[in-house]
Amino acid sequence: MTNLNGEFPDSPKPPVLTDDSRKAAARAMKLLLYKGRTRQELRNRLLEEGFPEEQTSKAIEYCQSFGYVNDEKYAENYISSMKFRKSRNMIRRELEDRGVTEEEINHAFDEVPYDERELIDQLILKKAGEPHAMDEKELRRTYGFLARKGFPSSEIWKALRTFQEASGR
Known about the structure:
The chain has 169 residues and is mainly alpha-helical. It folds into 3 domains: 19-65; 71-111; 116-166, Arc Repressor Mutant, subunit A (Orthogonal Bundle). It has helices at 19-34, 39-48, 53-65, 71-82, 88-97, 102-111, 116-128, 136-148, 153-166. The longest helix has 16 residues, at 19-34. The radius of gyration is 23 Å and the shape is elongated.
């Protein structure tokens, strides 16, 4: 709802940009057209392109004021797109590497349904096929495959036991 001046009272005011900051903001928005980015990713990219720190900060603040840069939403979208391929630990590490805070990551995991055990079961079926008794070599390979994706050892072993029990072994 707008006030008498036609403004949204709860929305933050975008920062006033100088001519130089406008160039950085325009470049930032152009980068955001291609893919979503975190504050850190956008900052690194603008600095790499030669924009000074002050202009970069103003440009990011400007983009954030319009909601174009939102690390929490970025984390939710990233989890939604990766939850069928990667473990919770791996997703968490990748988001941390991109500059998303632990609090934002935790909130995003609370918002996006994610069943790690179900994913492990699906990956075992994909890797090993129908449930059957695995020999030692196949068991080690499947365990390694899942461990490299960042799944907890205890969950992998539970899933492998369930898989083999389903075969009637």
